[in-house]
Amino acid sequence: MPDARGAKGAGEYPALAADARLASPAFPAARVLNGWLGMPRFADMLSDAQIAEVVNYVRTNFGNHYVDRLTANDIERMRVAMKSAGDK
């Protein structure tokens, strides 16, 4: 998977390269926070700043060139919104 185009084998993992869903920083942030398919949830393991940095790294590497960046405050707001949605 060094080319970041995804993997096939014990399941199928999404590509990090040229994925149009990465245009919205909320999409990968939600995936890192909550996990998805075979990826674990990192909401309880990483700080808001760490999650923002992971998402920013993915969105600016592997052939991706998105310039808008997430901040720790953005992730904090996402956590609050997800908690509120879960409380309903």
Distance between the termini: 40 Å
Q: Identify low-pLDDT runs.
A: none
Strand order of the largest sheet: 1-2
Number of helical elements: 3
Give the number of DSSP strands: 2
Structural class: mainly alpha
- Give the DSSP E fraction (strand runs of 2 or more residues): 5-15%
List the domain count as a whole number: 1
Specify the overall morphology. Answer: globular
Whole-angstrom Rg: 13 Å
Largest sheet, in brief, is: 2 strands, antiparallel
Give a description of the structure.
- It is a single chain.
- With 88 residues, the protein is mainly α.
- The chain has one domain.
- Helix content is 43%, strand content 7%.
- Strands 1-2 form a two-stranded antiparallel sheet.
- Helix 1 crosses helix 2 (48-60) and helix 2 (48-60) packs across helix 3.
- The longest helix has 16 residues, at 72-87.
Summarize the structure.
The chain is mainly alpha-helical and 88 residues long.
Task: Describe the structure using short key phrases.
mainly alpha, 88 residues, two-stranded antiparallel ribbon, single chain
